[in-house]
TrEMBL record:
Enzyme class: hydrolase
Transcription as UniProt keyword: no
Catalytic activity as recorded in UniProt: an N-acyl-L-alpha-aminoacyl-tRNA + H2O = an N-acyl-L-amino acid + a tRNA + H(+)
Cellular compartments annotated: Cytoplasm
Function comment: Hydrolyzes ribosome-free peptidyl-tRNAs (with 1 or more amino acids incorporated), which drop off the ribosome during protein synthesis, or as a result of ribosome stalling.
Protein name per UniProt: Peptidyl-tRNA hydrolase
Family listed: Belongs to the PTH family.
Family matches, as PANTHER family: PEPTIDYL-TRNA HYDROLASE (PTHR17224)
Organism, scientific name: Ruania alkalisoli
Residues involved in tRNA binding: Y20, Y77, N79, N125
Length: 202
């Protein structure tokens, strides 16, 4: 059974401001915006330097409000994500086993979803910053595939490009799937969520 009163902290990684909003690197922000449709209220500015939505995720089978979630989009740049995340964990008294970081993943094909706990950062600067600030890698992640850069394009340039027009229909489906994967992890646990979503996205 999920403890509906202990909060989950779900962090979507990205860079702040409209210039970066549609970039591949900002898919974490996009997933949280999609997930926020199921959480009453809206994002507000938090002193931790993040936009935060603190509410209940849907309803449980009895019709009662679902588990408490704090959705957070750090207002810092990607490589400085750790300080806002650490501050949010202190403020909401969240432990690493209830921290879920949603981020873009170069090493997965476009729209593939993978859930995991712990492990390395795979060169992702946002994850590196979080691991360093927390002093642990043992937190949950939802990796959202954005694919590898074409030809000899530098990865740093690729992640700061917008999704192509031809990819946007698939992206819209992926954002809904990713929001559902977050919900499944919170309600059902990591193993059940992995079984569902890793089979769905080979």
């Amino acid at each position: 059974m999920t403890d509906v009163n202990r909060p989950w902290l779900v962090v979507g990684l990205g860079n702040p401001g409209p210039t970066y909003a549609a970039n591949r690197h900002n898919v974490g922000h996009m997933v949280l915006d999609t997930l926020a449709r199921d959480v009453p209220g809206g994002f507000v500015t938090h002193k931790s330097r993040a936009a935060v939505l603190d509410g209940r995720l849907g309803t449980v089978s009895s019709g009662a409000p679902g588990p408490r979630v704090v959705l957070a989009k750090p207002a810092s740049y990607m490589n400085l994500s750790g300080k806002p995340v650490a501050a949010l964990m202190r403020f909401y008294d969240v432990t690493a086993d209830r921290l879920l970081v949603v981020h873009d993943e170069l090493d997965l094909p476009l729209s593939t979803l993978r859930l995991k706990q712990g492990g390395g950062e795979g060169g992702h600067n946002g994850l590196k910053s979080i691991s360093q600030a927390l002093g642990t890698r043992d937190y949950l992640r939802l990796r959202v595939g954005i694919g590898r850069p074409p030809g000899r394009m530098d990865a740093a340039d690729y992640v700061l490009r917008d999704f192509a027009a031809a990819e946007r229909d698939e992206l819209a489906v992926t954002l809904v799937d990713a929001a559902d994967a977050v919900t499944d992890l919170i309600n059902e646990g990591l193993l059940r969520a992995q079984t569902r979503w890793h089979a769905a996205r080979p």
